[in-house]
Design a protein that fits this description.
about 230 residues; mainly alpha; about 0% strand; elongated
Length: about 230
């Protein structure tokens, strides 16, 4: 799902937002300003200076850190190689028919594969995506965060209006528009909407702060609370 209307194809990616959130991390920005030296030097070695280039330039140079390793193939075991939780070493007789060997292989391996379904889906990238991303939510968190950094004195409900934050405008089955069409007062509805806007902005800021914190640890999008 596109993060916002008319988003460019390259903006419809969790990796674009990974880059954007990392650009909001103050400690990482300090490390970038020092040419990779500082508290986040280890992360800098993988992600580079996200402030000195646009997304596409950065992506072309760093997309390998998100890539899955090549699919492993069936092969001859190396001398002295032992089995582990992701590898089974078999003894295959070469003096039997292929069909018989294949049948025996399937009977032996199939139950083992069923016991380890996570191993087939778990990412083995250097930097795996930490959770299933919802791009419109990532965009809204960031939009509210940027607006707050730009104006720390703006009231939360005003900030919601400024960025066009989505909230439910129906209160007990009524809206301000329906009340006005009936020439009725709507102060009670406005109070409820102001509170909803305040809570929405505060929630977006809490989540954005956590995403920014953990992106500095190489995890995105990750948070430990709402």
């Amino acid at each position: 799902m596109p993060p916002f209307p008319e988003a460019e194809p390259w903006q419809c990616s969790v990796y674009y937002f990974w880059w954007e959130y990392l650009r909001r991390h103050e400690g990482y920005e300090d490390t970038c300003a020092c040419g990779g030296k500082g508290a986040y030097a280890e992360l800098f070695a993988d992600f580079g200076d996200v402030h000195s280039m646009d997304f596409w330039t950065w992506w072309r140079a760093h997309n390998h850190i998100f890539a899955e390793p090549p699919v492993r193939q069936v092969r001859h075991a190396a001398e002295g190689e032992t089995a582990d939780e992701r590898t089974l070493i078999l003894s295959v007789p070469l003096d039997t028919k292929l069909a018989l060997t294949v049948g025996q292989f399937k009977r032996l391996v199939r139950p083992l594969l069923k016991e380890a379904p996570r191993a087939k889906t778990q990412s083995r990238a250097q930097y795996p995506v930490a959770a299933k991303p919802i791009l419109p939510a990532l965009h809204e968190h960031l939009m509210v965060w940027d607006a707050r950094q730009a104006d720390n004195d703006c009231k939360d409900w005003e900030l919601a209006d400024r960025v066009g934050l989505r909230i439910n405008h129906v209160v007990d089955g009524e809206t301000i528009a329906t009340r006005k069409s009936l020439k009725l007062g709507c102060d009670d509805i406005e109070r409820v909407l102001v509170r909803r806007k305040q809570l929405a902005v505060q929630r977006h800021l809490r989540i954005a702060e956590q995403y920014i914190h953990y992106v500095g640890r190489g995890r995105f999008p990750y948070r430990d609370s709402r």
